[in-house]
Amino acid sequence: MRVVSLTIALLCGAGLYGQEYRGSIQGRVSDPSGAAVPAAAVAVKNLETGVLVDATTNDEGNFQVPFLLPGNYSVAVTRAGFKKAERSDVRVNTNSRVELAFALEIGAASETVTVDTRAPLLETTESDLGVVMNNNVVSNVAVSIYRNAINFARLAPGVSGAPAGTYTSDNQTQISISGGGATQGNNEIILDGVPDTVPLSSGSVVMVPSVDSIEEVKVNTTMFDASYGHSNGGAINIVTRGGTNQPHGDIYLFKRWAALNANSWANNRLGLPAPPLDYHQYGYFLSGPVYIPHVYNGRNRTFFSTSLEKDADVRDLFEQARVPTDLERRGDFSQTRNRTGGTLTIYNPFSTQVVGGKATRQAFAGNLIPANLISPTGAAVLAAFPMPNIAGPAQVGAFNWSDDKTYTVGQQQESFRIDHNASGRQRLFGRFSRLTRNQAPEVLIPGVQQYNGSGANIDHYQQWRNAFTFDDTFTFSPTLVGSFRYGFARRFNYETWGGVGMDPAQFKTPDVIVSNQPQKGIPEFNIGEAVPSLGSRQNRLANDLHSLFTTFTKIAGNHNLKFGSDYRLIRYNSANQGTSASGSFTFSPTFTQGDPFTASSANTTGTALASVLLGTPSSGSFGYTSPLSLQSHYIAGFVQDSWKISRTLVLNIGLRYELETPYTERYNRVAYGFDPGAALPVQGTGLNLRGGVLFPAMGGHPRREGNLDTNNFGPRFGFAWQPLRKTVIRGGYGLFFSSILGNTGSLGNLGVFDAVTPYLGTADSGATPFTTIANPFPSGLRGPLGSSAGLMAQVGDSLTYINQNRVAPYNQQWQVSLQRELPGNLVLEAAYVGMLSLKQLETYNLNDLPDVYLSQGTAQNTAVTNPFLGAFPATSALGQAATVSQKQLWLQFPQFTSVNMNGANTGTTTYHALQAKVEKRLSHGLTVLGTYSFSKLIHNNMTSLVNERHYRSIASLDQPNLFRLAFTYQLPGHFARHGAGRLLEGVAGGWAVTGFLSMESGLPLSISQSNGRPIVIADPRIDGPVNQHLGDVKNAAGVVLNPYFNTAAFQALPSQFAVSAQVPYISQLRAPGQTSLNASAFKNFRIVERLKAELRLEAINASNHPYFNAPGTNMSSTATFGVISGASNSRAMQAGLKLVF
């Protein structure tokens, strides 16, 4: 087996998935004089499994036993001429190093000296910051109603995220690790030592084990070990429970009823009853030795653990919407109010006259659309909606319909783990986990894309996830140990919109769409103004991650060396139909408002519903999107040295190198990049057109989507100094590289590989419709051109690509901290934490209009002869009309409607924080973990690469104050011993309570208007409790009387062509802060000696404190500006029953 392991090591290099999840025990053995004792035998025994691992001290008396599973151990040291020294109940946590010292006494080896067994409280060997939570905390503290381990990351200092604390297994992307200074969705989540997130899917987690099957969760907010990488500097490390010599397990059921929960804030305001709720979660965890009677006895050798958990969640589907009235369906808008509550006027887009860049239109007489102008398709679309059922006049953007049904979310996950001690030199481990998820809503409106009350899409959704891990740990010599690990993670999603399979003919869909649909379904109609979208869409994707990790540890004198490499193969396969497979059309008020060139005109005139009736979409498309099959490789190597200079000082020095390849597409269906200086091979335009697409594997370019970034060296340094027995000073610095791949939303796949034809809504900036939905594609449909188009690819349309010269973003992170041990098993820690994030990836439109033309005002919209007519494809947006707007020809690349570059390395973020942590280890039945951070997060960025305007402001994720407190307390129950009797013991004994308190600052607000950001001219803050400033009181004219902030503190830009100097976010203006107290109570009943029952009641947001949503921040929307329109997370309770053995 040694030959096999060495062969693997040579094939993999010194491999590593650096995020090692196991711990180690190390120390020094000395004689009574303090001199080193070499060649002493060290035996480390797992107290639960009986597995024994041997080591030997080196010439300096040092020893190390790495790769130990979290658990309790005993350590015995023997050497001829000395008494045996033994220390029991040594706790090893996730990714920790336990430092022990043995001073042997002279005597016979048959004599045993028991060393003080009190677990060390201080961290004397490492420089990282974070928290460790064992199964007692993870399975008992109610951080979230969904009992999800990812939630516990919020107990670490400085960790920000969605404060509602209701993360499901899908939304870990809302957590930001590394002191809040890191991007959400870039977190490294590690499950049993292998990555548990899939790139290109926003860092979505693959598998979150049931809390009953988890041994520990460790959250690192700073890491200075070179074995960590490919992240923003923070990680969540989850370790599952293995088996022991004694069978253990539990069976549980959790149940929630509507009667236990508080009604929602929105329902209370509307006078509606509490929504229906039927949720139950049940499962089991079972572990023990592998035992086959008369065949195999796995005690002290082979162990198993298995778990199953199933959720059935019948959720409320309460939806509010704006639906057309009976009059509006007939073209009568005389009774409809505009956004501000005044009389609505709708205009005829076919009457538009443009003079000097200014447009004038004729209003429809009496706000009635003539019958001869009503589109059959538009009328059929409006007829698909139900009639209003909320009293009151119809108003643009105001709800007039609601319904309350349910939808079901079902989830099941299973996991099986086996640990095998092959010999004293080799230990094996394997785990397989699987999760299935299904979401099936009732239909509120046939064909409508449905949302719940929080705005989340809840159409039919299925998901399958698999995760596999295998590890082989081998001891090559007393000073050299290797670990070889392979991991596989897959996430497969399938999503279906409600209109799939519906007959498009019922919507009078044009025949060019009906006869060419790849799959029958109604077109997508996006109306806005609180009107639900109709449509059909199917999306399929599979995201895989293979990881191979090998690490070696070596003791050399006073140096504990660790070296290795990390290889990952990332694959992403997508067969998304996109928005265009059944046809897609978007409507806006532009064609029915008074002035199409002034966005604010839509506040008082025009409505998208009228545009629907006229059959005048503003944009749209039809056709299928090409599938993608992407692949990327990640390779890293590292070396780390923990150098114990003296008894009180340890230096941790390391270096990591990383290389991540831009992805390749199996059939090269992506762009390599963009050449802004390339001359286009086109004649007859009269323009010197430059700038074209570059393709992989053409013109000498590699198959990759971009160039290699080979300069990614990440140094790490840390120290731990113990000047006093109960005081440790620690610090560190590290440089960390993030992924260059981004998310699927930023991929540079091109329309030339698709068969999508754009709908040209207007050729004169919205003045008049170019065509109508009756004849949506007058020039016919386009087919896929592929890379044969060369530099002419995508001309006449919008272009999106990824910067081929992008480099990996990186973070510089540092900390200095002080730990102090206090009486009562308490540890206090205070730290200064800093981070500088550079070269963050941003997106820009290279076709922004240069500022020099802003002075031209409305002349930008003047229609001029289209030089591209006949030169560009007739199906392109710029190749159809006889005229184009003047501003199109002023753009840097006039041959494209827009040039969107993803992956510009321009973002910079700085973070400074004072963090504190107090931790009380279990004693007298009480554990406490409290954290606080006072911080500032600043973002620097440009709004445009064409017009370089640099803004430095508070970042969108800045939360200056974060406080969390968690505790568990087992109430004293020794009544029987005091003569109270077993009856009283059974009633009053066995109780435990837990709590979780969270207090967080609100996020900063960004005030906007239709054409930019208004200027702050006064203090925007208003004193008083939030519930007195909800913006829910208006006068007869519709003016908000009690807004959340001072709406008069903002001055609108003087014109729609003005440039704002206002920073994006305002520090002194924030959304409401949030406070929550979760609590739970347990009662244990012992049935027999090894079987007990546990009853529990858990309450999330027990005080029912409203989590108010952020107010409206668009100054142009006067009806919602400064108005808080909702709140979330009313009190939720659940009861549970567990049988534990």
TrEMBL record:
Pfam families: CarboxypepD_reg, OMP_b-brl_4. Its main location: membrane. Keywords: Cell outer membrane, Membrane, Transmembrane, Transmembrane beta strand, Transport. Residues 239-1134 form the TonB-dependent transporter Oar-like beta-barrel domain. One of its GO terms (cellular component) is cell outer membrane. The keyword Transmembrane applies. InterPro entries: Beta-barrel_TonB_sf, CarboxyPept-like_regulatory, Oar-like_b-barrel, Plug_dom_sf, TonB-dep_rcpt-like. It is a multi-pass membrane protein. GO terms for molecular function: siderophore uptake transmembrane transporter activity. It is found in: Cell outer membrane. GO terms for biological process: siderophore transmembrane transport. This is Cna B-type protein. It comes from Solibacter usitatus (strain Ellin6076). The lineage of its organism: Bacteria, Pseudomonadati, Acidobacteriota, Terriglobia, Bryobacterales.
